[in-house]
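In response to reviewer comment 3 from the previous cycle, which asked for concrete evidence that the modeling workflow produces usable outputs, we include below a single protein chain processed end to end. The sequence was submitted unchanged, and the resulting structure tokens are shown without manual editing.
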Amino acid sequence: MPRATGPLADALARRAVLLDGGLSNQLAAQGCDLSGGLWTGRVLAERPDQVEAAHTAYVRAGAEVLITASYQVGHDPALLERSVRAAARAARAADHEVWVAASVGPYGAVLADGSEYRGRYGLSTARLAAFHRPRIEALRGADVLALETVPDTDEAEALLRVLAGTGARAWLSYTVAAGRTRAGQPLAEAFALAAAAPEVIAVGVNCCDPADVLPALEAAAAVTAKPLLAYPNDGSVWDAATRTWHPPPAPAPWNVPAWRAAGARLIGGCCRVGPDTVASLRTRLT
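The workflow returned the following structure tokens.
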């Protein structure tokens, strides 16, 4: 098991905790082929040693939480469990406390068509819950579940329905734009769903422009006292048609002091944020 000596929730009650960065960009930097619908899951299936090496790169940068390569895997229980084991091996070899967070990506991620940045798939909450239930069961060996890049309240409701009464611990993280969920719903409504869920230990945003973080955290803080989290991308926009990122004209500023003042306790990076940035974040959280 990972080297963490206690629940992540206990650590968040005491201090800020550093998340890792984007797994896909680190795997690409290692020369891995991420083409196809599985994305990082392809490397997990073919070269799990490379996934472990990517996790290790973030551990060396100071990351205290490793997010698994299960985001786009689907329902293969062996592959989902492998993702937890790969992160756990890197965590055990660390010289500091490290937790493993199992990525429970949204339904749209498995479609591999960019629809996680739109949401509103046309499925009922019950259908979405049925999709997520076996994935969550297969990932329960991690320290915490990362319900991440959630584009709308429909999917959030489904995920929370699956978690209810299980005793599992999770964070809930929306992808947002212009002060709303990707589906256009008010953020106060979205964050309020998690406020009453005992399984949720933190709420916040990921895979969004850094400029969208602070307004979202302020909206979350208005409806919940839970610790907040933020792990944006570098400000790039994903083009699903060409499967490429379009970078911003200039690097987006990361107002980490303001995020912390708003209540953020879990801070790191998402797509296109690498170990160097995570290492620099470490100095800003201590």
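The CA atoms of residues 68 and 84 lie 6 Å apart. We consider this sufficient to address the reviewer's concern, and the full set will be provided in the supplementary archive.
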